Amino acid sequence: MAKTETLTSPPAIDLSPGELIPTGRRFRIVLVLGFLTALGPLTIDMYLPSLPTITTDLSASAASVQLTLTGTLVGLAFGQLIVGPLSDALGRRLPLLAGIAVHILASILCVIAPNLAVLGTLRVLQGLGAAAAAVIAMAIVRDLFNGLAAARLFSRLMLVVGVAPILAPTIGGLVLEWTSWRGVFVVLTVAGVAIMAATALVLPETLPPAARRSGQVLRDYGRLFTDRVYVGLILVAGFAFSALFAYVSGSSFVFQEEYGLSEQQFAYVFAGGAIGLIGATQFNVRLLRRWSPQQILGGSLLAGVVGGLVLLVLSIADIGGLVGLLVPLWFVLAMVGLAMPNAPAIALSRHGEAAGTAAALLGAVQFGVGALAAPLVGVFGGGAVSMAIVVFGGMAAATITLYAVVRPRQLPVEQFDTPIVVAH
After folding, report:
1. Does residue 39 sit within a domain?
2. pLDDT score recorded for residue 315
3. pTM for the full model?
4. I need a labelling partner for 280 at 20 to 30 A (CA). Which of 180, 342, 362, 424 fits?
5. How is 146-194 classified by DSSP, letter by letter?
6. Are 222 and 208 in a shared domain?
């Protein structure tokens, strides 16, 4: 057998010691990780088309119904901080399956929710369950992969993250043609059951008992917060996400109200930005054949700042109309797509001994910092200029943090590949 690099925390997979995972099984594991990554976006976005009907059916205001979405995001953010350390102490499978079970139970109860207060509470529980899937999937990537291999896999998972929010509202809309908003939660229940079955059948335990860390939650979080490079990287990821969130939250108003696009035209424009984002995450795999994750991260953020500045100038000067807005905006989204897989790969490579806790803090910061961008667009007025300000600000903050705090040129260049080795 060819010599391979040794991981800091070798995976506990039920093959012979020292044996590499066969290619076919590796593909199935990665496929299940993709399903787990999709659970959060599906939970958030599938019921968006049903918000007006929920408002009518439960005799609630639009603002109060939108709080059920906020509840889901809260569950996703705080759930990761809880589940991540649990997965470091108990192993990956038990917290993961328990989290998916919570999601399934909450989805079933949403189907029969009698009022908005109950529905909102259940949506928080759904978020908690989806958080387990998101954070543990990321921790499993770190258990099995490192360096360039981790960055490549994160690129593939970003494809799921990019596609799921686009498909989820469409699926929700199709469900509403056949049934009520409660049917959306029936579909989420079925999806949760399918993901749980696939996880139980395919996904192995990747954290051996000897590598588990019971009773060290505070110590692990303390160590993470004292790692300047790690803290800088998770802030970089959060600021980059804020540029993306600014686009998502402001695009509907900008394109439909300011530029007069119809709902169908807006859908095409939004899909165009998503294609650029997704395409960049997949192009990252090719770039990794020549450059390191830190080189790509630094280059993409610098290019994103330039694109954001062009976007801001053209928006303020009102030059180029819709095309003048879309070209630099799509360019910035593509640069975010290049940054998104590499920042987590570098950050998690530094803390393989507490991958669950490290992934939890990363995810919570991404959601927290990124979600702040949505109200900021409204604070600045809600138009194209407002969106451009927040997009540029997010990219500028990410770039400054990278070079002032992380200092990527001082980091070692990890060139090793995919050492998926079994160790008992």
Report:
1. yes
2. 93
3. 0.72
4. 362
5. -HHHHHHHHHHHHHHHHHHHHHHHHHHHHHHHHS-THHHHHHHHHHHHH
6. no
